[in-house]
């Protein structure tokens, strides 16, 4: 088994439902352990200097009730913060948004065995039916898988370069396996097998286009 496959298999993925202010949301949940103390994992997830090294640069009024902006990506408000165990924020992508476009991301940390930290990340969103039918949970899940991979490398002291990672063959393998893993989670939720197969194929093509495959 490749190292990339090991990293994919280190994550538990599941789907669910959660009521958020925007309405009845669909959730994608990722859970995995990190060989690092809970305080270190929390710091890596909340300190702007460290976040920029494995995720994205962040600016804003970074406190409870404040707001944040991820460079070239989402923005939102900080709804709940209980160091070092719980962080919940709104997640807004794009400029012309409505209330239905405001999703929520919750990060939960808990101590595990032998000094390990268990991380759970849950993203709840009201997803348009046509978008969900086309891509399924992988549209959101593959991106978060990449984030958890970056955190894993960061905590090991071997940061991935976000600017070059997506051009590497390993990134293509990772995104392909991630899309398949979210397809399995989609199937486990009771979705129609044909819909799962089509959504997994569409997600794979989006994150690992066939035209980008090595010749």
From TrEMBL:
SUPFAM superfamilies from the UniProt entry: Bet v1-like
Which InterPro entries has this protein been placed in? ASHA1/2-like_C, START-like_dom_sf
Q: Which domain of life is it from?
A: Bacteria
Family as reported in the entry's similarity comment:
Belongs to the AHA1 family.
What name does the UniProt record give this protein? SRPBCC family protein
Q: Any stretches that span the bilayer, and where are they?
A: none
**Residue limits of the Activator of Hsp90 ATPase homologue 1/2-like C-terminal domain?**
35-144
């Amino acid at each position: 088994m490749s190292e990339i496959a090991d990293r994919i298999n280190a994550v538990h993925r599941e789907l669910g439902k959660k009521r958020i202010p925007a309405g009845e949301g669909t959730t994608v949940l990722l859970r995995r352990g990190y060989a690092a103390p809970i305080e270190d994992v929390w710091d890596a997830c909340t300190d702007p200097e460290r976040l920029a090294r494995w995720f994205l640069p962040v600016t804003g009024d970074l406190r409870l009730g404040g707001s944040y902006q991820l460079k070239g990506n989402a923005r939102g408000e900080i709804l709940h913060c209980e160091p070092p165990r719980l962080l919940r924020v709104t997640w807004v992508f794009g400029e012309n948004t409505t209330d239905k476009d405001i999703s929520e991301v919750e990060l939960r940390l808990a101590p595990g065995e032998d000094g390990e930290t268990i991380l759970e990340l849950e993203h709840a969103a009201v997803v348009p039916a046509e978008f969900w039918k086309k891509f399924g949970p992988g549209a959101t899940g593959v991106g978060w898988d990449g984030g958890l991979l970056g955190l894993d490398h960061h905590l090991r002291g071997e940061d991935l370069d976000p600017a070059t990672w997506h051009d590497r063959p390993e990134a293509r393998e990772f995104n392909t396996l991630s899309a398949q893993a979210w397809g399995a989670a989609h199937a486990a939720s009771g979705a129609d097998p044909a819909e799962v197969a089509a959504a997994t194929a569409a997600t794979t093509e989006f994150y690992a286009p066939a035209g980008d495959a090595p010749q």
